[in-house]
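Teaching note: in complex prediction, the entire set of molecules is handled at once rather than each chain in isolation. The prompt given to students was simply: 'Predict the structure of this complex.' The entities are:
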Amino acid sequence: MVMLALSLIKWWYFEGWKTFFRLLMQKISDRADYFSFGTIFRTFFSPFRQIDTGEATTPGLSGRLSAWLGRLISRFIGAIVRFFIALAGVIIILVELIFGLLIGIIWPLIPFFPVAFIVLACSGLTFGVNL
Amino acid sequence: MNEQFNYRSTRAKKARFSRILKPTIIRFLFLVLSLVLIVSGLAIIMFMRNPAGWLCFAPVAPFFMLTFWNKHNLEPLPNDSPENFMNVMSRDCLALMPKDPTPIDIVNIALKTRSGIFVSNRFLLGSNILTMIAKDLPAGTNSIFESAMKIRNETNSEQITGAILIIAVIEAHPNHEDILREFKMTVEDLRQGTIWFNYLNGMVKDAEKPRHTGGIGRDLAFGYTPLLSRFSVNVSAQREHASRTQIHQGDRVEILEKMVSLLSKNGNRNVALIGPYGSGRTTIVEAFAETLLDANSKIPSNLKFSQIYVVDASALISAANEPGSLEQLVPRIINEAYKAKNAILCFDDAHLFFENGNGAVDISNILLPIITQGAVRMIFEMDEQKFLELSTRNSALANAFNKVMVTGTNREETLKILQDLTPSMEYNLGVIFTYYSLVEAYRLSDRYIKDVEMPGKAKLLLQSSANFAEGKLVTAKSVQEAIEKTQGVKIQTEKTEDEKKKLLDLEGEIHKRMIDQEEAVRAVSDALRRSAAGVRNENRPIGTFLFIGPTGVGKTELAKALSEVYFNGESDIVRLDLNEFASALDINRMIADASDNAESLTAQVSKHPFSVVLLDEIEKAHPKVLTTLLQVLDEGILRDIKNREISFRDTIIIATSNAGADKIRDMINSGVSISEAKEEITNALIASGEFRPEFLNRFDEICLFKPLSKDDLSQILDLIVKSVNKTLDTQKIQVSLDEEAKALLIERGYDPTMGARPMRRIVQKTIENIVAKAVLNGQASAGANLVITREYVESELE
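The expected output is the structure of the full assembly:
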């Protein structure tokens, strides 16, 4: 058992720590892919689902103007939708990154948590509400 | 190299510990316990104001550490360096290994692992056989472990798995080659089984990796396609969630690259995949759809995340039921594809869109300008023949296509593809395919299934063999049964006792209906026995024989007897009277397509590939006809008028000739033996120019039929009477001849120049007439036995 415990500790501070950060980066990458920032920014002002992007249906200036206006609205809607998707993605990724980094920072301390909690129990520290 | 098993090594301990932690219930307990402890701890501290609550948190960190360690280190248990046996053994084997393993322990452990079970099932190597082999081995396991290391290197396996251990145990046996031969296996086959497992395992791991297919922003830039979706199937949407299509061959990879190149350029943005049915055109389209969906693939951005829609011809036809409606509907669909900006239209069996007929609709006039402009990307899948027909009918359209040829796959590629397909086929069909079922599916489909290309035909055969599974296991025998039932051929070399007996006494069976001609009967019987035992050359017909002799001595009768005894009955004989092929122009009639002439030689043999082919009166055929037949006699192949290969490799070809009949008769009468006469007759036939030497040389054997003697005729008469009795059997009337009547019939029926035919005629004139009259005047009724005397015969002959 001692050999196994030593193996665990050795792994925890070297391979384990690296694995944690690799998984964190993988998660962030997958999340970024899900929100497809590249596509969203590249097509930021593209018409939303190509609605109203056809040629003018009626001849003359009014027809062309109407088509232009339709495309403009479609592009505007597209930009709004993409902006909010990108914003949601950035917030989610930031939260995950911060949370992950915090765990990464305290990673070396985790094996000491049991001792720390025993010390806290002995110190008599409590918090919370009075019933 | 000395490979010692070390039970106390850290890696072995890790493997055993992982086995304890592995059960889902343990991990679930850890999670639940952690949550309970955290909640309890908080409750105690916050509500009870008791610092002992901190103690509840203490075990949570070790639980988390153990779970994380197990998942990312113990379960995968990566290899350690240096590369020795202990450091590369897979976790599942290592975890079960006792302190001092014996060969039997190794077998038992291997059979509990996934890879071990895989090899055991695919090669029908049960625990009994393996334990029996292991029992014969010496107690030490070092040689097994050394062998396992070697196999691991040779099969490029990452670790030493249960499958490798099984092979190592087998190879450790001094007589392993003999043992494997008994099961019709080789060591190399077993190694291929390991490679197969590694490959499938890799596919599973690959499928577990997250796919990057564009995310939620992907479709925002592309348009809606409601009409297109109604008349087509979105292959990309199907492939997005399906297992990855595997493309192994270099030429397939090149085709994909060519498709990317052609469809990403401006101008004529189409690809026409031209290849035979079964060659994998649809698989290429599926693989192409996956390439387009892969965010990491290196393709031009204008193709990335494009969707492939396979247009449904029948849906179009059913929707456009009024004149002119199709001309309105198709442009609307294409316009929608154009506006969507990411749609690639795919026309499977594209000829259906360029001709009118059942299930077909001609929209070439609508498509041609769009194809030439390249406004919408298109993929066409077409059969070679259909493309040639289209080229002659509409050259402008054919020239507008960017042609990419798709050819069939070879053995190695086909086996790899079948191995890919087995998981899904096994799931759908509820069976397990053995390694040899795949090998046999390739071999037999290559030989017997025409008009479909590899790998399609091997896959079709494998699917149909599921109907012949034994206990949900598809073996090589199941595949053989499937081809026998679908193609009407006999290929199984494992015979029942009755079949073996029949084959060993084939001469006796044939002599039940023909007399004498021992040499010819033995020659054809030997050929059939060689074929049935699987020792013949499979790239030739079962046997090719030239029967030479006077008329009426049993040449045709032997062919019929053979067909009845061994093939599918006398009616299944493929017979061609070559006196009808006396002109060079008759060759076309001989190799005509079945749809034009169902009686042509090629049409009959393609319908009855396992039969006797009787070429009567061959000396009367035109020399060019005989030249055409040279390839059949040599390689068992004849190309029909449409250049399709027709196989004669499961036929016995018998050519008959009366040439030199007088000479044979004279020689035999003067006491020359058959074997002596044969050489002289053959030389005489060549010298007279009746047959060319290269033609005669193509036959396996030239059999001389000797004229019938009076003794032979007596036996023939018995056979004819027996045949009359068989006809009368339904009326329960029997006929017999007394000795005097028999002698008279032989005397009158004997004609050395005409053989047995005069005898048959005289029997018809006498016996059959006598019986007919007896039946009509009431002398013979059911149960009667008519004894025909000399007087009866004489009265009929007068």
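Point out the following to students. The radius of gyration of chain A is 27 Å. The mean pLDDT of chain A is 89.
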